[in-house]
Batch of 2 targets.
Target 1
Amino acid sequence: MIEDMTVQVETRYTVDSVDRAISLLQTVAGEADLGVSEIARRSGDSKARAFRLLQTLVRRGLLARSTDGKGYRLGLAALMLGHAASEQMDLIRIATPVLEELGREIGETTQLRIRDDHESLCVAKWEPKRDLRVNAIVGRRRPLHAGSSKAFLAHIEDDEREAILASPLKRFTKKTVTDPQLLRTGLEQIRKSKFFVSHGEINDDLISITAPVFASPGKIVAALNIAAPENRVPEERICELGEMVAKAAQRISAALGFRSPVMK
C-alpha cells in the first residue's frame, strides 16, 4: 500500500517531456550513432517527437550529430556532467571517513558542501550522538554569501563573485553580512587564511569553522566545516579547532591530487 502511494506521488510530479528526453539520452548513451528512426523505435516515441527532443538535447550540448550526420552520440556537455559526477562521487567517498574522524575527535557535527551555481549543497555529514547537536541535512542548500558557503565565494573567479554580490543577498540573522563591500573585505581575508569562522550568520546560536577543499589544478571543489552551539566553542579553542579542520580539508585535497606548499 505504501509502495503504491509512493509510485503515485512520484508519477504525479514527473514532467513527461523531461522524462522522455532522459530516455532518449540514455538510449544514445547505450549505443552511439543510432539514427532518429531507431531511437524513436527503442524509446517508444513517434519519429517527429523524438526528433524534436533530440534537437533540444543537441542544442544544449548533451548530444551531438555523428560524423556522417545521420546519427547521434553524446555531446561535450554530457561528458562534462559525467566528469563532474565522477569527481563528486570520489569526493564523497574520500571525505566520508575524514568527516567521521574529525567529528569524533572534536565531538561536533561535521559536513561537506559543494557548490551548485549560486548556492552550496550539503553532500556528506557526520553527527555526534549527543542530545544537543547541530543537525546537518544532506541536500540542504545555502546561499554563497553567508556562513561556511563563503569559502566558495572567496575562491571563485572575480566576475562570478561580482555577479553574485550584485544580486539581492538574503539576511538570516543580525550578523549576516549583506553589504557587498564588507563582504569583499571579508572574502579577501578568507582567501589568505587556512580556515575561517562564522559566528551566527545563519543561526544566531551557532558557530562554524570552515576550510576549503581543492582539487588539481587548485580549483575549490568543496568546503569542510564543523558546526556547534556557540557556547561550546570558547574563544581560546578556535585556533586549535581551525587547524584541525584545515588539516582535514588538506587531507581530502591531497587525496584528490592537489598539492600545496602549506600541506604537511
Note: The longest strand covers residues 219-229.
Target 2
Amino acid sequence: MKFTSHSVGPLNNYSRCFFGLWFLAMAASVGWRNAEGPSYKEQIDAWHQTRINSLKSETGWLNLAGLFWLSNGKNSLGRGTDFDLDFPVADAPADLGALYLENGHVRFVPKAGAAVLADGKLVTGPLVIFAPDQKPLVLAHGSLRWFIIKRGPKYGVRLRDLDSPQLKEFQTINRYPVDESWRVKARLETPSTPTTIPIIDVLGLTSQQPLAGTLVFERAGKTYRLDAVEEGDKLFILFGDPTNEHETYGAGRFLYADKPISNAGTGLVVLDFNQSINPPCAFTPFATCPIPPKQNKLTAAVTAGEKRYGDH
C-alpha cells in the first residue's frame, strides 16, 4: 500500500508526540533529579564549609591571641612585662595606653602616637568602650583587635590577631561520615512556669539560664532527654556522650536547632547531630565555654558531627 502525503503527516505527528513523551519520562526519572536540589550529604557538607569559613573569619575563634582580666582602676596595655596587659604579639606596640575599669564601665585612654582606631576612627582622647547599656567597641591597631567581655563579675579584654599563625595552619575539622539516621525528630516539652537551669563555664562561674524546654527523642528503641536554652532564634543544646573520652572534644559538644513553629501545636524539633560542633575552647585557650549540665550527658555514643580537633 502506498501512503499519500496526507497519510504520512499524521503518522509523523504521532511519532513526534510519542518520542516527546518518552523523553519527558526519561528526564523525569533521570535528569530532573538534579532539580530536586542537593542531596542530604551535600547539604551537610555545604553547611560544614560555612562553619569552617566562620571559624576563619575576622570574628571567628581561630585568631584569638589573648584574654586578660581587668583589675579595678588603671590597667596599662602594650608589649612587654612592664604592662598589666602584656599583648603577646611580636609586632605589638610597646605602649598602647591604658584601660580604666570603674563602676562597670571601661574607658580607654590612648598613648600619644599609638594610632589606635575605634570603628575606623583615630582615638585621640579618653573613650568609653564598654558600658552595661551599649555594644562594646572594638579597638584596632594594625592586625590587632581587642574589646571587652563580661563573665559574671569579671571584665576581660579579648585580643585578636588577624595575622595569627593558627589561621594559616588551620585546614579543617575531622568529622564522622554523614549519617542521616542521626537526624531525629524530638518533642519539645516546655515548662509550665518559667524555669532556669544552672550552666557552669570553664572559669567555674555558674549562670542561671532560662530553660526553653526539654527535647525528648528516641534512638534504637531508647528514649533520651536533653535540656535546651535559647540563643537568639535558635535552641541551644550542650551535650556530652561516651565519644568525649577519645573521639570528640572531652568537655562535650554544641548543637543548635530551629524552634518549633509556634502555631503548629506539635512542639516537634529536628535535631541533626551531624551538625554537632566543637565548642570554641577546642580551638583556643582564650575562650570561656559553657559545659554540658549533668542531665545532658547521654549514654548513647553520638557518632555524628565534628570530631576532636588537634590535641584538645
Note: The first helix runs from residue 5 to 29.
